[in-house]
Q: What sequence folds into this?
């Protein structure tokens, strides 16, 4: 064995077929660092943190090939085999592969610049320690690789408390070896980590799936169409229990800033892009490395930090996300400037350049966040306006009376049921649902036994949005536990993109049921306003100057709210000095017209889709329009009476 400081008499060597002497078993070399302590500081007994290091190593290997002009498949396969003890994680790519010489340098030496960063490659490997830390932070492991028709392997083990690097003699990569390690042709590398440390907790498979694709450092990889990241759940017999392709999409939002800014005192610039989400995003204070809010700091296409700078704890900053692209950070790293923390926590903000970058970006963010603060305060003042609130509350009561009269069928001798179903005898509970991005939620589908189905029948469930994934496309109906007249099935859905919204529809024969699902960044439950009936179709009327002005009014089905787009040109001209629409007769008339439009259209849609209004099969759209006109003629004057007042 030998250390980085020199060769020891215990050093063992072998000669490869080219006559080159290669160390086969020696003490792990590390540049005056304590490898195990560093691994603990970097990985923190976190399996997901270790996987970030390994996955980015694979991506770096593909990136080097791409920069050299090679076409790559870009597949990275992650296998998780959970056990009571010694769980196993394997990560495989089909990229460059490594020879024994390369393994000796990359795996057997600590702190070397081996990724290509010094050669100006667009790679993340900035520390020369990620792979070793990932292995020793969890236990021990093995690196196997096929390159040029040969099979190379080495191990990182702990022997008597000392980290040891063992390099095996190369052999030919025959068909059996290729099949065993999943590289049927070409080059590739397999990293296997044995989680032998008893103080490391292995996440559930669903948590692997959720958190890996949301980790901020992996987002460019997860969203890169030239990469395919596959996560597999491996049973104890080695068979694949389930697998998923991981991906990531940024929240839906509007670009509010795109500017190249100069960094004072340095010959450098940064490209700042900021987006605003329509809903609050999770922050680093809430979800750490998996937060949707904040700015990604990017240098040469590599993500190195997620931050909102001094606004990290500001609730009004939680609507914003985006990126700071600054390639000068890459130049500093090449010169070994300490612009990053040693434990992979991102940027070292005490570095002089980092300080200057921070001040420049904060100066651009300040007006955006101040405007958000003022807008929120104005909204709050509008909500607290007693006169307006009383008018809207009274109007909502009348609107729900209209909806109830149109949609609820009154039957003589109607007996109260333990479980109420829609008129069609089939419905989702709840009808509106929030699901956190990357997580799953459950809808309960209930069906009347006599009219619609039988135990064991299968319903088909679909989503009209690619951002709402139905994980139970075929749901089997089972008897309800307490009501013999009801069948039910559990339908699991997954949210993909924050801000995404879709309709989940279940079909059984000629009947159908629908639920509205919206993807949120944080775990939230829909809370019905306490003053409204749980059966109320309309729960609020609100004004929003950020709603798409091309549609003057719309019904927010997920929150049961009528939304007036006050930025629409034909609405804006009737606003008063405080951006209110209700203080003039002209404004009140327009408000009444907009509310009438939204109310009549939603009642019409609801009645057709739930089977309350008769409609010929295939003519649903015409039926909705016909009932919309009928409802306007019947109720418009009543709505005007409650909205238009002369006082």
A:
């Amino acid at each position: 064995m030998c250390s980085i400081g020199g060769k020891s008499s215990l050093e063992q060597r072998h000669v490869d077929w080219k006559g080159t002497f290669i160390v086969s078993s020696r003490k792990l070399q590390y540049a005056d660092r304590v490898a195990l302590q560093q691994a603990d500081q970097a990985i923190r007994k976190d399996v997901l943190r270790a996987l970030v290091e390994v996955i980015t190593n694979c991506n770096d290997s593909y990136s080097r090939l791409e920069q050299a002009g090679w076409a790559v498949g870009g597949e990275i396969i992650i296998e998780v085999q959970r056990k009571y003890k010694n769980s196993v994680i394997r990560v495989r790519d089909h990229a460059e592969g490594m020879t024994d010489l390369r393994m000796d340098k990359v795996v057997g030496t600590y702190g070397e610049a081996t990724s290509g960063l010094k050669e100006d490659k667009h790679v993340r490997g900035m520390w020369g320690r990620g792979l070793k830390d990932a292995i020793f932070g969890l236990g021990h492991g093995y690196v196997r690789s096929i390159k040029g028709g040969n099979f190379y392997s080495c191990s990182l083990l702990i022997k008597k408390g000392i980290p040891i690097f063992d390099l095996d003699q190369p052999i030919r990569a025959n068909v059996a070896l290729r099949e065993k390690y999943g590289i049927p042709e070409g080059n590739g590398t397999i990293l296997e980590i044995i989680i032998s440390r008893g103080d490391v907790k292995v996440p559930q498979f669903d948590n692997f799936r959720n958190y890996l694709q949301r980790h901020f450092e992996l987002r460019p990889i997860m969203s890169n169409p030239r990469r395919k990241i596959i996560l597999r759940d491996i049973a104890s017999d080695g068979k694949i229990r389930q697998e998923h392709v991981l991906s990531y999409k940024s929240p839906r939002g509007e670009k509010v800033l795109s500017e190249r800014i100069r960094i004072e005192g340095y010959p450098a610039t940064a490209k700042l892009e900021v987006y605003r989400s329509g809903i609050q995003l999770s922050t680093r204070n809430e979800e750490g490395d998996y937060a949707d809010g904040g700015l990604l700091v990017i240098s040469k296409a590599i993500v190195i930090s997620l931050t909102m700078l001094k606004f990290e704890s500001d609730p009004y900053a939680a609507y914003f996300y985006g990126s700071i692209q600054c390639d000068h950070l890459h130049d500093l790293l090449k010169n070994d400037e300490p612009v990053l923390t040693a434990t992979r926590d991102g940027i070292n903000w005490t570095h002089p350049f980092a300080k200057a970058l921070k001040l420049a970006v904060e100066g651009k963010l300040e007006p955006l966040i101040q405007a958000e603060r003022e807008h929120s305060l104005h909204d709050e003042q509008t909500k607290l306006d007693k006169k307006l609130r009383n008018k809207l509350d009274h109007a909502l009561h009348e609107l729900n009376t209209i909806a109830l009269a149109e949609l609820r069928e009154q039957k003589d001798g109607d007996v109260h049921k333990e479980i109420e179903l829609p008129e069609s005898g089939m419905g989702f509970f709840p009808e509106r649902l929030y699901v956190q991005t990357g997580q799953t939620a459950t809808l309960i589908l209930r069906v009347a036994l006599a009219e619609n189905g039988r135990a064991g029948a299968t319903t088909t469930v679909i989503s009209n949005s690619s951002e709402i994934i139905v994980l139970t496309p075929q749901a089997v109906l089972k008897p309800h536990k307490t009501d013999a007249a009801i069948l039910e099935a559990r339908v699991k859905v997954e949210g993909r993109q924050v801000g995404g919204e879709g309709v989940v529809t279940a079909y059984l024969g000629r009947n159908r049921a629908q639920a509205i699902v919206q993807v949120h960044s944080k775990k939230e439950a829909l809370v019905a306003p306490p003053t409204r009936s749980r059966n109320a179709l309309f729960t609020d009327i609100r004004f929003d100057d950020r709603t798409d002005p091309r549609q003057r009014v719309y019904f927010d089905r997920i929150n049961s709210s009528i939304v007036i787009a006050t930025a629409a040109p034909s609405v804006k001209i009737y606003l008063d000095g405080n951006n209110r629409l209700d203080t003039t007769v002209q404004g009140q008339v327009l408000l009444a017209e907009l509310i009438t439009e939204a109310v009549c259209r939603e009642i019409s849609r609801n009645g057709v889709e739930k089977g309350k209004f008769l409609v010929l099969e295939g003519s649903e759209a015409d039926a909705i329009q016909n009932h919309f006109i009928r409802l306007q003629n019947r109720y418009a004057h009543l709505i005007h009476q409650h909205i238009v007042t002369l006082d």
